[in-house]
Design goal:
Elements: H1 5-20, H2 27-30, E1 43-45, H3 47-55, H4 59-71, H5 75-80, E2 85-87, E3 91-94, H6 98-111, E4 125-129, H7 141-159, E5 163-170, H8 175-188, H9 206-214, H10 221-242, E6 249-252, H11 253-258, H12 261-271, E7 275-278, E8 281-284, E9 295-298, H13 307-319, E10 324-330, H14 336-347, E11 357-361, E12 364-368, E13 371-373, H15 385-392, H16 394-402, E14 410-413, H17 414-418, H18 425-443, H19 461-471, H20 473-483, H21 487-506, H22 514-538
Parallel strand pairs: 4-5, 4-10, 5-6, 10-11, 12-14
Antiparallel strand pairs: 1-3, 2-3, 7-8, 8-9, 12-13
Length: 546
């Protein structure tokens, strides 16, 4: 089993804290970080500085005690690191042994595509719901961001050994669907937006005219509704296939009504004693579960508010055996999180309080030629996912839309995404992969034999740093899966690519010395595999030529 040096150092430091500073062996104190300056070591701890005041001890004295106990914690730690050193007012610096750094190269080449992936004896059943667009128009850039984030999250969770279901929830009921049907009906009758008789909340995009032209059935609103929803679902599916996203389950909101699941939830909420009547409406005491105010379940006109089917839908997720559920939604849905969780808690059926988890994504602005692009000819009021795919291609769209924290506003620069320069992050990462492929092709040997290379010839600072960066990959993707943070994978890949390009520009790979050449080729092959594995998790290709 691969050893994670950082995890081993933290485990040893935790053991030392339990002995030297009982009661303070928490992650706050035993976590280690990469120092800002490489000369300070490979990892550093500030625990002595943090504990000096509560223990009324000199931080350097604490550092001496902790470093000694950390190094003595186990034979494993002594095989991984040099004896720790103390710096400044009380930093503990850890340096990995050279063979520890380069051994990862062999592990990567032996594991191949499995490098960084974990196995579980008891995989958790996880559902990731994302995109879930109303079938009322083409997918927009926000849906594209959801698709990229959700698919990457699912891949990351799968990489850690859990079983993942990707689900798309179709909101095929309600007022918006009614407006869609009315809009198509009006177009079929020859009306255009702005004409007398055009629906007040009608959709004005050219796609409405396309649907009306394709429809040949009776002038019946229900028939038109079914046709329009089916038409747009197929259109959305085409875009998702082009984007490389495949769902395991499509769930229809309308089925919650036809199968009586919404009525069942309302009855259960009333039976729970957590509802009350006021102003002719039925209310849920959602403030009992952390919501900022109580919420209406059934309005005075006897219709249900939109969060009620959401509660019914999430109850089906729990009943289908998903012990962990992650919803990827826009920040405009932030208010629904507390309501859904409150409704599930009020049902008192064993759903845990934080169920489901939410990953909220912020808006996307599209820039082209230095100006913001606000509309699409086809959609009429927004830039579509198909527009982005046509302009820059799948790889750039997926990488770019994942490359920032989900809740951070993002500016998609079309010109940058098309540029073949190091400023374009996806090009820069893919070029590093292609560069390794070119070196291996020039060599002409069998890459499969590189796992047996003698790595002792790798002694340069850039070589050892590159090997260490490769070694961080398993812990990085494990943390990205745990923290629901796929953007961290893009950061890592950019760092790895930068270090490789720097190494490539500074050193010859195909030197005359056979032992050194083979060791450097093994290092390059490990870089290639790590880049390919990381890009695969993001749904981005790893080209051999560029």
């Amino acid at each position: 089993m691969a050893v994670d040096p950082k995890a081993e150092i933290e485990a040893a430091l935790k053991k030392a804290l339990e002995k030297v500073a009982p009661g303070h062996a928490s992650v706050k104190f035993y976590s280690v970080e990469r120092p800002k300056q490489a000369g300070h070591g490979d990892y550093t701890s500030t625990a002595p500085l943090q504990l000096a005041k509560p223990y009324n001890r000199n931080p350097r004295e604490l550092a001496e005690l902790l470093s000694k106990e950390t190094y003595a914690a186990s034979p494993t730690i002594q095989a991984l690191i040099e004896p720790p050193s103390i710096a400044g007012p009380g930093f503990i610096n850890f340096r990995l042994r050279k063979d520890t750094k380069v051994d990862v190269i062999r592990r990567v080449l032996q594991a191949g595509q499995a490098y960084g992936r974990a196995r579980k004896n008891a995989p958790e059943s996880v559902q990731v719901e994302f995109v879930s667009a109303n079938p009322t128009g083409p997918l927009h850039v926000g849906h594209g961001r959801q698709a990229a984030i959700g698919d990457a999250l699912a891949a990351l969770i799968e990489s850690q050994g859990d079983k993942v279901t990707r689900e798309f929830y179709y909101n095929d009921a309600g007022a918006q669907i009614q407006n869609l049907a009315l809009s198509v009906q009006a177009r079929a009758r020859g009306l255009k937006p702005g004409d007398a008789g055009w629906p007040p909340d009608g959709y004005a995009g050219e796609y409405i005219a396309e649907i009306a032209k394709a429809y040949s059935g009776p002038d019946d609103l229900e028939s038109i509704r079914r046709f329009a929803v089916d038409y747009l679902r197929k259109e959305q599916d085409i875009d998702l296939r082009e984007f490389g996203v495949k769902f395991d389950v499509y769930y229809l909101e309308s089925s919650l009504y036809t199968e009586g699941k919404v009525d069942e939830v309302v009855k259960a909420l009333r039976a729970s004693g957590k509802t009350y009547e006021k102003d002719g409406a039925l209310w849920l005491r959602s403030t009992d579960y952390g919501d900022d105010k109580d919420r209406v379940i059934r309005k005075s006109d006897a219709t249900y508010t939109y969060f009620v089917p959401d509660v019914a839908y999430h109850l089906t997720k729990w009943r289908r055996g998903y012990t962990k559920v992650i919803n990827v939604q826009g920040t405009d849905h932030m208010g629904t999180t507390a309501r859904v969780r409150a409704g599930l808690q009020a049902l008192n059926v064993g759903v845990p309080p934080g169920y489901p988890d939410y990953v909220m994504h912020s808006m996307v602005r599209v820039m082209r030629g230095g100006e913001e692009v606000k509309i699409s000819k086809r959609a009429g009021s927004y830039v579509t996912l198909r527009d982005l795919l046509d302009w820059v291609g799948r790889d750039a769209v997926r990488f770019f839309l994942i490359s920032r924290k989900s809740d951070a506003d993002f500016v998609f620069d079309i010109d940058l995404a098309r540029a073949q320069t190091e400023e374009n992050p996806v090009y820069y990462v893919q070029y590093a992969h292609a560069r390794v492929c070119s070196v291996l092709a020039q060599w002409g040997g069998d890459p499969g034999k590189l796992s047996g290379a003698d790595l002792s010839a790798l002694k340069g600072e850039k070589e050892l740093g590159l090997a260490q960066r490769i070694g961080e990959f398993p812990a990085l993707i494990a943390e990205a899966a745990r923290e629901l943070a796929p953007h961290s994978v893009t950061f890592y890949l950019r760092s790895l690519a930068a270090e490789f390009h720097s190494y490539y520009n500074a050193e010859r790979i195909l030197v005359d010395d056979e032992a050194l050449r083979t060791a450097r080729l093994a290092l390059c092959a490990a870089v290639r595999q790590t880049l390919a594995s990381g890009l695969s998790l993001l749904g981005v290709s790893a080209p051999e030529k560029m």
